[in-house]
Structure formats: C-alpha cells, structure tokens
Amino acid sequence: MTTTTPAAPARPGAGAVLPPLRIGPITVDTPVVLAPMAGVTNAAFRRLCRESGAGLYVAEMVTSRALVERSPESFRIISFEPDEVPRSVQVYGVDPATVAAAVRMLVEEDLADHVDLNFGCPVPKVTRRGGGAVLPWKRDLFSAIVRAAVDAASPAGVPVTVKMRKGIDEDHLTYVEAGLTAQDAGVAAVSLHGRTAADYYSGTADWDAIATLKAAVTDIPVLGNGDIWSAEDALAMVAHTSCDGVVVGRGCQGRPWLFADLAAAFAGSDERIRPRLGEVAHVVRRHAELMVEHFGDEGKALREMRKHMAWYLKGYVVGGEARAGLGLVTSMADLDDKLAALDLDQPYPGEAAEGQRGRAGSPKRPILPYGWLDSRELSEHFRRDLHEAELSVSGG
Ligand SMILES: Cc1cc2nc3c(=O)[nH]c(=O)nc-3n(C[C@H](O)[C@H](O)[C@H](O)COP(=O)(O)O)c2cc1C
C-alpha cells in the first residue's frame, strides 16, 4: 500500500528521538542523511547544509569508470572542503571489476571515508542497458558489485552502503532480497527510496516498504527515503517504519536550513526555521559565493544557481519578472541587484513555502533490455551491453 497519510509521530518530549546512526566506524549523532543529488549536492550546497544542521552529507554520484579514468569532472564531484568529515562519496557502476578499482582508488588514495553504492537511477538511458534501479533484478550481478566494493573498501576500514529503489515495478520488486544480500555482503547500512523505477518520482513514496525492509534486515541500519518535506515528515517516517535514520533529497532544495529543523526535531524540540525573504536572499547569496569558489568560474556557478531560484523563492510573493530575472542571473553583481530589488521584509509565507518541490512527474513503464525479465541471472549477452549503462550516465 502506498502511504498517503503517515501515522502521527510519537511526540518525543525531551531528548533524542533516535540513537546516533552507526555506519561502520562512522557515528552520525543526528540520524539524517542528505540524499545524493546530481547537480545539487556539490561541496557548496553541502556546506550550506552542514552549517545549518547535523548529519551525513553525500556528494553527487560519480561513475566508477569516470573515477578510474580520473576525469576532471569526477574529481570535482569528489572534492571536499578540509573540514568536511566524513567525506561521503556515491559511486555508480555496473561492472564489479571497475567498481572494485574505483573503490580501491578512493580508499588507497584517501579520498573518501564512506562509499555509497547507487542502485536507484530510473532514467531510460540507464535502465534500457540494465543499469540503475533495474540492476538488482540480476541478483548475481548485484551481489558481485556489492561484494567487490566491500572487499575493496574493508582493508581501509571504509564502510560501504547501498541505496536502492523498491524494484522495477510492483510486479518485480527486489528490495527485500537486495537488502538481505547487501547485509550478507558486509555493507554497513541500506537505504530505500520507497518507489519503483516505474514510479519515477510520481505519487507518494511507499513508507510501508521501508517498514518491511526494516523488519527483514535486522543486523545493519535501514534508512528510509522518499517525500520528507519537513521535520514533521521525518518524525512521521520514523514512527511509521521504525527506520534507523532518514534520507532527505528534494525537501532541502532551496531550503538547506531544513537540516536545522531536522536536528531540532530529532533532539525532541519543536523549534523550526521560518525565514523572512531577506534571510532567504542572504542564503542565496552565500550559496552563489560558495558555488563560485567550488567551480572557480563565476559564469558557470551562476548558471548552475539558476535552477535553485524557484526552490528558494517558493511561496514568497515575488513578481513574475523578478523571478524570471533571477532564473537568468549571470554574475554576482547581477544577483546582488536582483536580490536587492525584492521585498526583503516579507515574512515567512507558511505552508506556501513548504511541501513538494523539485522533480515530480508521472509513472513511466521502465525501458528494459529485451528479455531482461526472463531470468534473475546475468547472461553473457547482457554483460556485453551493460557497460553502456554506465557510459550513458553523466556522473563525472
Ligand atoms: C535532481 C536529483 C538528482 C538526483 N541524483 C541522484 C543521485 O545522483 N544518486 C542517487 O542515489 N539518487 C539521486 N536522486 C534521488 C534522491 O537521492 C532521492 O532518492 C529521491 O529524490 C527521493 O527522495 P526525496 O523524496 O527526499 O527527494 C536524485 C534526485 C533528484 C531530484
């Protein structure tokens, strides 16, 4: 069943709602994880989130091949500020040997403290080759990739985690089996986005599936992901699923201060951040500054900032022209002018600023390699094509 109205959270009263999250040797006091989001969770955005709250902040996904080939973009993706601890890298790969080589490189060169493996990508150009969210259907391949990563990381004591979706569609669910396989392979935690590849980003995330996974996978933490838009949603997910921590994606787009709300909520406090537009403008400017530092190129940084504007301004009264102008911002000076022209004294607009943001859309039937569903094992025929499932992904 898909959860539309999660159970009311148990009011925490004083003290913490959950114990610290333990991911191998890493202790995360507030059991909150920033979901990896390509094009969003770079070092600049993570810094804003880190300043606001506490948790584990995962970088944008990087492909194992790009890492092994040492592409400049892959090194941008895995760049961390000196004070960022732990350094959490998400790797996507479809070939056990390449994933092993990439993870070995990360740990031997001391480039990461935590490696998350991505099995959640629903985009057709990936699934049509058997990659992303449809890969765990081939249980031998899934197991081999996870084991290869754990074997490569464990000599350095670096924990490996797995992030996945429920499966291909409701008739081809893989998450419980994949969670148990990952646990057996020695991963330190699993997180589940409560949607199938077919769901894409549509509808509401199935929190019952997270509860099912939590009941099945008993030796390692199970993290819940999907549709946490507020601290109250995070508490509700924990109450509904008994998960050990929450993974927050779109809800913090344009709201990095959500991590302060989450830290408060998990500490049993009702305090929430309700910024005036002027405070939002201040965060936008700081985000842009950090982006310029991160990319080392003002034009590129400001182009990257454009998509964030609608998220930051959601719910505030800002005219169409001003919005459009901020969506086309070209330089820091231009940004300053456009922000200064807003009605900065405007108070927090309440509900209008909250709720769903970012990717949504309708279900899509996943495009699979011909005959993919016929067997749960990988045949030579599919193996040959599989590397293209990685080459077609922009992740470094
Ligand atoms: C713009 C965008 C980029 C994403 N990139 C990744 C990614 O690189 N790796 C990954 O595992 N998931 C990625 N996701 C999925 C999120 O990590 C998360 O699982 C999903 O958005 C559901 O969580 P939410 O409802 O909190 O957003 C992405 C999602 C969005 C919206």
Automatic annotation (TrEMBL):
Residue stretches making up the DUS-like FMN-binding domain: 34-332
Q: What is the required cofactor set for this protein?
A: FMN
Record key words, sorted: Flavoprotein, FMN, NADP, Oxidoreductase, tRNA processing
- Membrane-traversing stretches: none
Gene Ontology molecular function terms on file:
flavin adenine dinucleotide binding; RNA binding; tRNA dihydrouridine synthase activity
What Pfam families does UniProt report for this protein, alphabetically? Answer: Dus
Q: Its domain of life?
A: Bacteria
Name recorded for this polypeptide: tRNA dihydrouridine synthase DusB
* Record organism: Cellulomonas algicola
